[in-house]
């Protein structure tokens, strides 16, 4: 898994690219604070090598909790900036700081 951040000088946003190696998966989405935990519109595209990838524009100077939804199962990104306990989910969520 990988997270790449590209800060834009002209706008107060950061382009964040999420990459998830999941050759056997049919569908991968990234859900979090930035999209109200809704997988609609946040599905990652499957590449020929079996990796799923997607880029999202997020407002800078924010912190977001997120997880991947891989064929209906939640997963954290091991490359996240940090992890934070979430009482609602009853587990740790990955945290992205942009």
TrEMBL record:
Residue ranges of domain CBM20 in the record: 8-98
Organism this protein belongs to: Flagellimonas maritima
CDD domains: E_set_Isoamylase_like_N (cd07184)
Pfam families recorded: AMPK1_CBM
GO molecular function, one term: starch binding
Protein name as annotated: CBM20 domain-containing protein
Cross-referenced Gene3D superfamilies: Immunoglobulins (2.60.40.10)
InterPro entries found in the cross-reference section: AMPK1_CBM, CBM20, Ig-like_fold, Ig_E-set
PROSITE patterns: CBM20
């Amino acid at each position: 898994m990988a997270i790449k951040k590209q800060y834009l000088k002209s706008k107060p946003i950061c382009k964040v690219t999420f990459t998830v190696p999941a050759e056997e998966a049919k569908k991968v989405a990234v859900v979090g604070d930035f999209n109200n935990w809704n997988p609609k519109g946040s599905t990652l595209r499957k590449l020929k090598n079996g990796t799923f990838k997607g880029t999202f524009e997020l407002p800078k100077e924010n912190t977001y909790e997120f997880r991947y939804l891989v064929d209906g199962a939640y997963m954290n990104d091991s490359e996240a900036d940090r992890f934070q306990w979430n009482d609602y989910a009853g587990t740790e969520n990955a945290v992205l700081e942009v």
